[in-house]
Amino acid sequence: MTEDLIGSQKGARKNKQRIGRGNAAGQGTYAGRGSKGQKSRSGKGVKRGFEGGQNRMIKGLPMKRGFTNIFKTEYTLITLDTLNLYSNGDTITPDLLREDGHIRGANKNPVKILGTGQLSVAVTISAHKFTRSALASIEAAGGTAEEI
Q1: Position 4 in a domain
Q2: Domain assignment of residue 97, given as a range
Q3: What is the CA radius of gyration of the chain?
Q4: pLDDT class for 3, splitting at 50, 70, 90?
Q5: Whether 53 and 89 share a structural domain
Q6: Is residue 138 included in any domain, yes or no?
Q7: How confident is residue 128, by pLDDT bands cut at 50, 70 and 90?
Q8: What global pTM score does this model have?
Q9: CA–CA distance, 97 with 108 (Å, rounded to integer)
Q10: Mean pLDDT of 103-110
Q11: Together in a domain, 58 and 84
Q12: Mean local confidence (pLDDT), 72-86
């Protein structure tokens, strides 16, 4: 009874395939190495990183300098000219801009107001960031800016 519990199940372990021991053994002739070339010969083979004689990738890296910051925050940019489309006293939020089509698609990036153009209406603007020139223009027009 205890013999059944000790050891592996029948068929769970297989012997290693013996390569290069003749055609009858199943891996004869070329023994899985193909017919010609450096990898078919006996001996060590090619060194790590060898790419068949062309320059290795690591040697070509100096011209591929720099990196992409995966943690960078990308903002949806809105200009003051866009805000002129609203009337005096309106409260403008990112959701309102999205509803009116100024922010397209499923863009969930934070909103930044840029100081490009002139603002001629006094509105309350809620956004994630403002440029200095945008803040100055909003206050000069009699509006207020609220950071979310």
Answers
A1: no
A2: 76-147
A3: 34
A4: low
A5: no
A6: yes
A7: very high
A8: 0.55
A9: 12
A10: 85
A11: no
A12: 91
Instruction: Round to whole Å and give the CA distance between 80 and 113.
Output: 7
Pairing of strands 144-147, 91-92: unpaired
The answer on 139 and 88 residing in a single domain is yes
Residue 97, judged by CB atoms within 10 A of its CB (0-12, 13-18, 19+), counts as: buried
Do residues 86 and 140 both lie within one domain?
yes
**Residue 43 clears pLDDT 70, i.e. is over it:** yes
Query: Are the beta carbons of 117 and 79 closer than 8 angstroms?
Result: yes
User: Which helix (H) or strand (E) is 135 found in, with range?
Assistant: helix 132-140
User: Any idea what DSSP says for residue 21?
Assistant: S
* pLDDT reported for residue 129: 95
* 42 domain residue, yes or no: yes
Domain count, the chain: 2
Residue type, 94: P
Cα dihedral 48→49→51→55 (10° resolution): -140
CB contact at 8 A, 130 and 113: yes
